Amino acid sequence: MIAVIINGELRQFDHPITLVTLLEQMQLNGKRIALERNGEIVPRGQFDQQLLENGDRLEIVVAVGGG
């Protein structure tokens, strides 16, 4: 079991998943987002290479347009 904190809320997964899979599950795939993992910004090009690990802390911010 993998336990991570996402935007201050605990989420658990049965097995390690990539950041891309997480974003798909959260229905954020294709949206303009910034993702911070354990205090460091993760470049979008690395989302498919990074597996979540037990104890990770993520902050995900979705860019919203307006005017």
The mean pLDDT is 93
Could you name the ranges where pLDDT drops below 50 across 5 or more consecutive residues? none
Instruction: Please give the largest β-sheet.
Output: 5 strands, mixed
Q: Tally the beta strands.
A: 5
- The secondary structure category is mainly beta
The percentage helix is: 10-25%
Q: How are the elements arranged and paired?
A:
Layout: E1 2-6, E2 9-13, H1 19-25, E3 33-37, E4 40-41, E5 57-62
Parallel strand pairs: 1-5
Antiparallel strand pairs: 1-2, 3-4, 3-5
Task: Tell me what you see in this structure.
The protein is mostly beta strands. Helix content is 10%, strand content 34%. A hairpin with a 2-residue loop joins strand 1 and strand 2 (9-13). The radius of gyration is 12 Å and the shape is globular. The model has no long low-confidence stretch (mean pLDDT 93).
Label this structure with key terms.
1 helix, mainly beta, 10% helix, 5-stranded mixed sheet, 67 residues
